[in-house]
Records
---
Amino acid sequence: MNQVDRSELLPLGEYEIIREHFRRRIIDEKRHRRVAVGPCMSVVFENHDTALLQIQEMLRTERITAEAAIQHELETYNALVPGPLELKMTLFVEIPEKSERERMLVELAGLETSVFVEVDGVRVRAHGEERDGAEAGRTTAVHYFAVALSEEQAARVRGRGACLAIAIDHPHYQHRAALSSDVVASLARDFCVTNGASSW
């Protein structure tokens, strides 16, 4: 899957015109890419279009027009786009109450090494991306993970024949969630994409 190219980014005024339609489309797609894992975590599988939305929204929110700053956002969010034999996912620790969330983030220290994707019953460890602002003795509420698949596993996903699940195996949080057929179908389409360009 191709990363987002600079030529795909719309100027702020042009993006404003198509924003409602584009956001609605990607938000709808994300419904088929989000998986709840236990009571207070969820995972979203990322792809070219989810990264494109985040870049355009960041440019809009921050009113970014300087070329160097645009390139920085491209580099930042292109890290979410999976390679040919990869899954990329964002994990959210979702605890609304602040004091409870802070307590859990301390309890969940080491979460970065406790996340797996199961492909036909075989566990593949998800590798966390190093994040700015990480503190010793605690974890963060948002994590970015990459999962490297074998060619055989990727082919099984592409053919929609794989049984997929996400497992979190942490001393303070042990949950597993099987991926629905909708999520598997969405990931299969990712593996079939040869051109990453988005249709606005």
---
Amino acid sequence: MKLFVKAACVAFVLTVVFSMLPFRAACADIPDKVFRLHIIAASDSPDDQELKLRVRDRVLEYTRELYSRAASVEEAEQLTKARLQEIADTAAAEVAARGYSYPVKAEVCRMFFTTRHYDDYTLPAGDYDALRITIGAGRGHNWWCVMFPSLCVGAQPDKRAREVFSDSEYRVVREEKREYKFYLVELFQKIRRSFS
């Protein structure tokens, strides 16, 4: 009986692993096709969290046309880097307009994101390039979205997603709702990061 239970457990594990291979392969290139926005609040106080959302709105308004014109993730990053100081100034102006004196830092960086759900889209865990805006000490909860393809700004996000992602990647971000698969991909990413 013990041998049967062990064999069943091994068979189950192998089934899960082999069922994950196509999903994992579809997830592998998604981070290299996406540019994200990450805004970190000064603290978790209600006022600082509200300020973070006001900065978000102002930055999204400023960058809306910028990202809708980008034809590739590389172009989105280049446009961001070329206007990084203007984006920082836009965020800082909103902070000052709300009566705060927090410094604002804007940077383009590569950072780890856990699996994130955005309305009708899900992005798997991984290392993504992002515009990160830090308000003050940056010790508060954050806010994030996808700037390219424009899933949180601009018109026709589904059309943009179809243009950027392959069919299998599109199924992952748009249609695949199996939470355990996303969990396993995220677990794999965290293990990989711990060894690098």
---
Amino acid sequence: MYLELKKRVITSLILILILILMFINNIIYGFVSFALFALIFVEFSRMISIIFSKKKIFQLIINVIFIFYLSLFLSIFFLGINFFQLKIILFLILLICVASDIGGIIIGKIFKGPKLTKISPNKTISGSLGSFIFSILISVFLLNLTLNTEIIFNVTLGITVSLAVQLGDLFFSFLKRKSSLKNTGNILPGHGGVLDRVDGILLGIPCGLIFTLILSS
């Protein structure tokens, strides 16, 4: 148990360092973004091949749709290389996504209580509320500090992003259950695969960005 926790902590610190380097260096930003999305697709495709092992056409259709989605996602990230304000917004939303995950883990483990859904037995109602609370607090703090936006906007963004993160997490948890996989991979010691870490973020960032663009236009 201690060894597993140690792995998770070390891996988390390395990931934080990589994020910092991505923010300050565009070459690292572009390279890491492309590498992450490639790994995400490999792990996703593996799950789909297991779920639809006898239906190759379904595998093809779903993989094509997911590639299209990832391509749009990656295009937005690459725009951040030339538009610094967009990069700031992307990283702010990313931090709100991370806060949602952390809030769910901390509050869920402290208060436990009724399960949220059968799709993911480890998730509780208290954990879901913790995700919303942490996202709102981080959203209010970071946006007030950097963009000086209205409090109602900050709170609503936190709620929107957390909801999207939790729905994305549940969706990929459902796929993992259908494919009988505990983790999508093992590239991140103590965490599993890349997709295990960014499952909710894949929906949280686009929803947060769309929300921000609509209200700021």
---
Amino acid sequence: MFQTLIVAVLAMISPSNEQELDTHQRLIEAAARMFVEQGFGSAKVRDIVARAGANIAAVNYHFGSKEGLYAAVIQYHSAQAIAELSQHAGDDGVRGPEACLRDYVCTFLQRLLTDTPQFTMSKLVAREMVDPTAAFGLIIEKFIWPQYQALHAIVRSIVGAKPSDELVRRCCLSVVGQCLYYQFARQVVARLDPEFGYGPADVERLAEHIVAFSLGGIHQSARTRTGDAQQSSCGDVDGR
């Protein structure tokens, strides 16, 4: 039911003039900060409109409800993130898949760990993972799934030779898991590796490490799977 409501609300969001567009955008930006800081349940509409410098009725006018505003925040930041990822990590037909993986991981880490425009969305997703709302399905559909598909295509190209879907999925989740650890376990990393920082140069070095580690694992997994398949084939021949 919530998903149906979200689709209807997003369909009617269409500011008709510059002033309305400005209010619309200020509400999204203010709401994003409030939802990250307090969570969807605790964030109050009156506090959001106050931070946005808008009228109390503006949320209903522009988004229909608090749920509609939350959906608009997800939609807006998801679109920004996917566009950024497509720009920096897409395969343009010239670079190889390993270069695409480096760009993907670097873009992903910058979003997770540094103060970029998409840092807000990563924090919102992190909150949803810990305390999911009814909009979690929308986050999966609009934010997580498109990124997973892009990574899936990259990893499939790296593995080559008709890889199994299971192998590609495991490799994709292993890449993502390494990146997410540095976000969710930030305080643990600080204790275990006091010299590690979260500046741009640190993040770039971390990206290089994760890519190198992942490529080694992907290639080894592919070789192991190929060897298992060959052994199985030989066993079938010997058994006849």
